[in-house]
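C-ALPHA CELLS:
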Amino acid sequence: MSALPDFLEDYRARVEADLDAALPASDAPPAPLHAAMRYAVLEGGKRLRPALAFAAAAAAGGEPDAATPVASAVELVHAYSLVHDDLPAMDDDAERRGRPTVHVKFGEACAILAGDALLAAAFAQLARPGIPREATARLAHAAGSQALVGGQVDDLSFRSGPVSLERVESVHLRKTAALFRFATWGGGAAAGAGPGELERLDAFGRDYGLAFQTVDDLLDGGRDECSVLRVMEPTRARERALGLLGAAARTAAGFGPGGETLAALANALEGRLP
C-alpha cells in the first residue's frame, strides 16, 4: 500500500503528458473548440480509470506503459461524459471540481461539440500500435446505448416508476462500472493477457465500479435520485461496498505479486468509506 501514492503520481504524470500530446493546441483553429477540449481534460481529475488500466497491465505481467493508449482513451471518454452530463438538458451543473463547467465557460453549443470531439479522440488512441482490435469494440460498447449513454437515459428518468436495487444497480453497472471494466480489461489486453486473465480483470472492474458508486452514494448522503440509499440503509450499503471490494481484492490476489497495485486500489477505496 505504501507504494501506491508513488504509482499514482508516476502514471498520472504519464497519462497527462500523453493526453496533452493527443489534444490539439488551444490556439489551433477552431480555437474555442480546442480550448474547451483541453479545459475539460487537462484541468484536474484523479485519473483513476487510467490508474486501473496501468495496474491491470502490471497484473497481467506486462509493462504498465503498454496500457498508455487505453488509459488515454478511457479518460477521454470519461471527460466527454462529464461535459455532456453537466449540460442544462442533463444534470444542469454550473461547477465541477470547483470551476465553471465547460458549457458555462465556453457556451452550450461549444460544450456539446467538445464532448463529441473528445469521444472521437478516444477511439484514435486505440488505433495506436500494440492495442488489440477488440478494444475498439469494447470501448464502443462501454460508451454506447447499452452502457454509458443508456445508463444516463435511465438515470434521467429515475424520478418516475418503482425504485428497486435491481433498477439502481442497472444504472450503476452501465453508467459507472462500464468504464472501470473497460479500463481493467483494456489494460490487461494491451499487456497481452490471456482470455482467463481478461475475464478476471473484467470482474475486478465490475466489482470495483459498483463499489465506487456505492461509496459515492454514501459520501453524498443519497441526494441523487439514483442512489443506492433509496433502496437500503447506510449500514447495509456499507456492507455491500465492503463485499464488492473484498471480491475485487481476492481477484487481484489471484494475479500474485503483479496484482498488488490493483489490490491496493481496492483497499484505498475501502478507506474512503464513511
About this structure: DSSP finds twelve helices and two strands in the chain. The radius of gyration is 18 Å. Residues 4-270 form a domain with the Farnesyl Diphosphate Synthase fold (CATH 1.10.600.10).
